Recover the amino acids of this structure.
């Protein structure tokens, strides 16, 4: 996660300071949109995964927590 944050901060440094919040918001919106589209396409598979494999619930919680943490980092850095 630290490497992703470092890459993100290095990417933001390429833009002027006054544009960095707008770039951050645009990236966050794109990230949310892509996650939504992925869930929309694979919604039935996610339901089957939860029904068929109860052990996958902690894994899905971990993935969701990582996505939330990354989104919070995106919004905090702007």
């Amino acid at each position: 996660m630290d490497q992703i944050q470092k890459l993100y901060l290095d990417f933001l440094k390429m833009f002027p300071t006054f544009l960095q919040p707008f770039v951050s918001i645009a990236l966050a919106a794109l990230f949310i949109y892509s996650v939504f589209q992925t869930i929309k396409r694979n919604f039935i598979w996610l339901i089957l995964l939860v029904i068929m494999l109860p052990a996958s619930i902690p894994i899905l919680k971990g993935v969701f927590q990582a996505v939330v943490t990354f989104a919070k980092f995106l919004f905090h850095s702007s």
Remarks:
- The chain has one domain: 2-12+21-77.
- The CA atoms of residues 50 and 57 lie 6 Å apart.
- The helical segments are 2-12, 20-41, 43-52, 56-77.
- The chain has a mean pLDDT of 82.
